[in-house]
Hints:
Oligomer: single chain
Largest sheet: 2 strands, antiparallel
Strand content: 5-15%
Amino acid sequence: MHNWTTALKKAIAKSLNSNTMRGLGDFTVDTIVARTRYKGQGVKNGRAGMLNPVSEKYAAWRKKRARHPDAAGGRKSNLTLSGDMLDALTTTKATSKAYEVGFKDPDEEAKAKGNAQRGRPFLSLTAKEIKLLSAELNKQITKNVKNI
């Protein structure tokens, strides 16, 4: 039993490094961007839900602008007018114990905060997405257990 416990501890230690955490951060970013841009969903209380619609005035203004190919139409919201805000979301920090997701541009971060205040929170994960993230980490640990 002692050898198995030692092997498991080694596998976990090997799995929890800055590269793995950066990968989990990138997985988180991809998950948030895909849910927001392609489904028009945000997260409230751990559950996905449609983002609040935009005003009629904004919808009319937006219709006249050059837009990202995936931008929503009508009053729907997917936080993708130019694509700059969601494209600026990135893994900003990764250590062997944690990672941070944020914006590489302070102007885009300010836009994200404004959207959240207008009923379009999108920068968290759903319970289901957290399970997927945990499964990704579990895959890495399992791979390293097999290699010890």
